[in-house]
Amino acid sequence: MNVQTRKPSVAGAQNVEVSKKLPPELDADGQLALMERYTQTHRAAAGLPKERREIACLRVLYPALFRDIEDGDWFAGRLDFLPIGFGCVTSVGGVGHYCVFDKLLAFRDALPSAADRERVDALYGYWEDHDTKALYCADTLTGATVGRFIDCDYPLMATARLSGVMLDYETLLELGPSGMAARLRARLEEEPGNEFLLACQAALGIYRDVVDSYQAKIAKHLAGDVPPERAAKLETMAESLAQIRDGRAETFHQAIQQCWLFALLAGCINYGRWDDYLGPYLAADLAEGRITRAEAKEYLKSLWTLIENRRTTVNGRIIVGGYGRKHPAAADEFAKLALEVTRECRYVEPQFTLRFNKQTPAEIMDLALDCIGAGATYPTLYNDDVNVPAAMYGMRVGRETAEQYVPFGCGEFVIQGQSIGTPNVLVNLLKLLNICLNGGIDPMDGVYKAGPVNLKPAAELRTFEELYDQYKVLLGYYLDIGADAQAHSYEVMGREASFVFASMWMRDCVAAGKAILDGGIRYLGGTNETYGNINASDSLFAIKKLVFDERRYTLDEVNKALLANFDGFAGMRRELANCPKYGNDLDEVDELANDLFEFTAKGNRARGLARGMDYYLIVISNNQTNTEWGRRTSASADGRAAGKFMNPANNPQGGAARSGPTAMLNSLSRFQARYHGGAVQNIKFTPGMFNRHRPQIKSLFQTYFDKGGCHLMVTVVEPGTLEDAQKHPEKYPDLIVRVSGFSAVFVNLDKDVQDEIISRELYGR
Amino acid sequence: MDAELRGTVFDIQRFSIHDGPGIRTCVFLKGCPLRCAWCSNPESQSAKPEPMFSRRDQAQITVGQEMTVSEVLAVVLRDCGYYGHSGGGVTLSGGEFMLQAAFSAALIDQCHAHGLTVVGQTSGAAPAEVFAKLAAKLDLVLMDIKDHDAQRHLEHTRGQLPHILANAAWLAASGVPHLFRIPVVPGLNDTLADADAFAGLLAQLGEREVELIPFHQYGKGKYADLGRDYAFGQAKSLTESDLGPFCSRLESHGLGVSVS
């Protein structure tokens, strides 16, 4: 790379990307031409309202980026993205008008012609000043405290993205494009010239263009030599597209097709409660003999494949079950079919999710456990009886609304079709503790990162309370700048774009005549991902015990040992490591963990509300950031060495939980769900334990859920398999594990991420 | 106070699912009168705490600690919800828990007072009156019969089979729910002739059911960690399918056979 970037901070990995993306259909020339056209359009529309600019730019992308239908597809709709374009999330490009700089550079470097590389350089230069996230970063990032996601040298990372948008498919299916068009006309009579409503009208035109482009592709295929089976699929597709181009979906196939195209156009990578939206179409088609169950299953397999092929790693949520469904019986039929498909496909996406409660049929729970027991890692389980009341408090909504909660990404909640809850801030509690112990200087790189917070050196902290209070002040400062960063991300994104397709199909935007971030969304929430929670509380506990209760060491000695990464302090390290740890159902330890959790959660929430968000919650989610951030986090007083992974989500550090699954689950269930917006809980069993002792496993889970457990994600794997897969990856192409907030093919993970997963207790060994 | 009685415990294993019905917490008491050559818990044999190398900690630790009944109970009670859901409870094991008779009796009573069922795993190597008194308190007794040949039993376990069988006879006639279990050890008691002899013994006791515990090598490393020799270091673990013919032979005598 020899481009002179003026803003180096904008380049670099920007999201967790484990699954390898499929290359775009357009060749390099086509891609470059399209990116240039997009850039020219964006530049030329500089003086226009953002809505018109967005539509003009979207017309460049669509239908051009929609790929051809593949042989196995039952539905039209494969969408590429390029290093420059428009979107909501970093998993498929970027947010708003975006440029993914490192991908653009990679694209540039692969070009053979110097002239073409210069064309790319020109684009790069333009987008440095116009990429939404770059604009946000320029305002938000600081030299020492706030870094770009993912830059693990900072205690806090901030990003701009509009994650977790899940459309109001109920309204979509009820109205169809023509119904929406009528609604828009009516609204425009009330508010002539409303740019947002006009943009929605134009967006419907783009949707029709996409449908028409697929009709043309289908016609071309059918004109050629296609086998009868494939022709039947294409004809079904053509019929459905003809119906849904303007009208409402009338069949299961049409309903999937319509939802899918709008999800793609809106930049959504999480889909939500498709059991309730699509179940009635499935039930009606089956009842009236339009399709067989086997055909319906083929449709779902194809849909699952289309979702998988987007390779969005930590997303792809399809959610079944739970309270608040309008059509529970039909939805359960969908759920059963989906469970079978999930088990047979063994994909890492969709991130197939079961919401359950006391009323969930035993048959569904059993199918779910069978699917998990077969090694699919899915469904991931969400306990409605805990989460619905928790969402009522956390998101400050009524029961009916809370019943529409949906987890997305790595486990944070939004209200489907009604809220935004994107996690645009991430904070590392352990790094902050180490900084707090070291007078504000991060031992990892020697940089001062405490901002204006006045920190006493370790030698001057006389009591545990003094230390803990000082830590809380530092943490509070970071929660402040985090909440500012979150709020500012909405300002910047809202200034640059309307996210017309997403806004159109969120419940209130058209009625309000406003885009999501212009006040159109009913609940503008947000989330802050916290990392190293348990390492931090275990470290605090070890310090309390060894330094302040037992006077074995001074705090200064502990800090010196940490600075030396325990070199020369093996005895102290052993004592620190042997202190009681979270995950063993020990009151003292778990209470301290809970105290830190509640301090962080409540402090975060209050700061978000003060900045005008409808809710702002911490999520103890996880992707592999616990490992990546651990690489850049110095040695900690729980005995963890510098550079080692941190604990995954709400779980104990690997190796710390030694008291069996009941004890671990008791520790996990201690945090009250109402204070967080999702907390990922992992557990790992051998198939022998999980499948041969199913009644006890069911009792184990049920008791945990009764005790307030909000969630569980389960990996079932033979002992030794993960270790063997590290050595012989070629033998395990489809070994799926639950990393935390997502599932992945094990052998695609980095070595230390693999190590972290192996370190977790495997029950039944 | 019974609650303050002290016992020597070498492990409390939560989520035990092989030691009685449902989800149980298994309390392992230290000390055993027998010295079974294949014992998979060699750290359970001596009644006193002793040094042992911990692989997990990579350090020398002490195995076994004195605990009061209430301290054990405090751990046990943390999993009440799991017991209730699964029909589980507490299991007393060892070692031979009956060696610590007063402590065991108090712990059983305390568990019952909290509505928990208690299963006892015993070798039967306890004085008759102690055996009867403790067994009568239990909700289920799982009793090992390690051999049918008294001389061989003495050689391999250092225990007196006639005495153990007398306790077994008491148990069989007592009306206390119980199940006899045979640890099947390769080269020691695993022939079809052994199966016939065991069946005869169980018939004398009037038993219809028996459980087999296939020999395993999970305890092998512990001998090294304790710095002791292990006579069965080279023996092969048995699987459920290895026991097929042995099971069939027992079944041919009209016994219901399960494998642990």
Biggest sheet record of chain A? 6 strands, mixed
Largest interface chains and counts: A-B, 22 and 17 residues
Low-confidence stretches of chain A: 1-5
- Contiguous runs where pLDDT drops below 50 for at least 5 residues of chain B: none
- Percent helix of chain B, as a range, is 25-40%
Main β-sheet description of chain B: 9 strands, mixed
Describe the global form of chain A. Answer: globular
What distance separates the N and C termini of chain A?
A: 48 Å
Mean pLDDT of chain A equals: 95
Number of E strands of chain A: 21
Rg of chain B computed from alpha carbons, rounded to a whole number of angstroms: 18 Å
What oligomeric state do the depicted chains represent? heterodimer
Number of helices, counting only DSSP H or I runs of 4 residues or more of chain A: 29
Q: Secondary-structure element sequence of chain B?
A: EEEEEHHEHEHEHHEHEHHE
